[in-house]
Design goal:
By secondary structure, this protein is an alpha+beta fold. It folds into two domains: 70 residues, Winged helix-like DNA-binding domain superfamily/Winged helix DNA-binding domain (Arc Repressor Mutant, subunit A); 158 residues, 2-Layer Sandwich (Endonuclease, Chain A). Helix 2 crosses helix 3, helix 2 crosses helix 4 and helix 3 crosses helix 4.
Length: 270
């Protein structure tokens, strides 16, 4: 993400000249249009048009000083707060208006998400929108990033069940610890999380390396069901096999034992 304030103002809808002029005003004001042109690098032929647009935006104000006109910026915090309120009001009104335009679709999309920050942001968004239940499997290292959203969801009455490989603190939620071997844990490290919300949507993310992560999101009923079924049953398998002991070999058909090989080795041959 860029840290250049001019580029970020452009992302908020400023033209490059408007952004340069506003930054220059913040650094030195009040100034005349001629002085601002020199300070900002905006061509003199364009500076008054740019100042007119900044004034209309509420980012600059006009000051009369004798026979001359000078310009000063609206303080950045005040201007950005107002801009934020306007965007929130616009977004809120558009949600309702655009929802009425949308037509139901039978297509079940799978969206691909790239990047650690984007994946965790999507997971947090899903958790904060959850209404009834959350099932989440993750490695403990991923838990702190989602802990505040989980605690907030629990606080508003959402049932949260967390599956992980070591104890974590989640007051009001249920934590299921799956004790797995070091070999299995090493092979699973790439699978960063599986998140199912309200039985309606699922996010599955994997971390391929320190700088590469990807995930898939869908609301496909079949895929959501499979993911939730996995979370609510498969992670109990090691404990169930441990209780069965040698009887598990009689219950599992020989051609299927490869599917349970690691759990069987861990709890029967030890």
């Amino acid at each position: 993400m860029t840290r250049n304030p001019i580029e970020r103002l452009v992302r908020l809808g400023f033209s490059e000249y408007e952004a340069k002029a506003y930054i220059a005003l913040l650094r030195e004001s009040p100034v005349t249009g001629y002085q601002l042109s020199k300070l900002s690098g905006v061509p003199r032929s364009m500076i008054y048009e740019v100042l007119g647009k900044l004034t209309a935006r509420g980012a600059a104000m006009t000051l009369r000083k004798g026979a001359s006109t000078q310009y000063a910026p609206v303080p950045a915090e005040e201007f950005l707060d107002q801009l934020q309120r306007e965007h929130e009001e616009l977004t809120s009104s558009l949600k309702g208006e655009l929802a009425t335009l949308a037509t139901p679709s039978d297509l079940e999309y799978v969206w691909n998400i790239e990047g650690d920050e984007n994946i965790l942001a999507k997971a947090e968004e899903m958790i904060r929108q959850a209404k009834t239940r959350i099932y989440l499997a993750l490695l403990p290292v991923t838990f702190p990033a989602l802990q505040p959203a989980l605690e907030e969801a629990i606080g508003r009455g959402v049932r949260a069940v967390l599956y992980t490989t070591s104890e974590v603190d989640l007051p009001g939620g249920r934590v299921v610890v799956a004790h797995v071997s070091e070999e299995t844990l090493g092979q699973a490290r790439g699978l960063g999380l599986v998140l199912v919300i309200d039985g309606e949507e699922v996010l599955i993310g994997e971390w391929l390396s320190a700088n590469q992560a990807r995930a898939s999101w869908t609301s496909s009923p079949l895929l959501v069901f499979i993911a939730e079924h996995h979370l609510r049953t498969d992670l109990y398998l090691p404990e169930i096999l441990a209780l069965l002991g040698d009887r598990s070999l009689d219950l599992i058909h020989e051609e299927d034992r490869e599917l349970f090989a690691r759990a069987l080795e861990s709890h029967i041959n030890s």
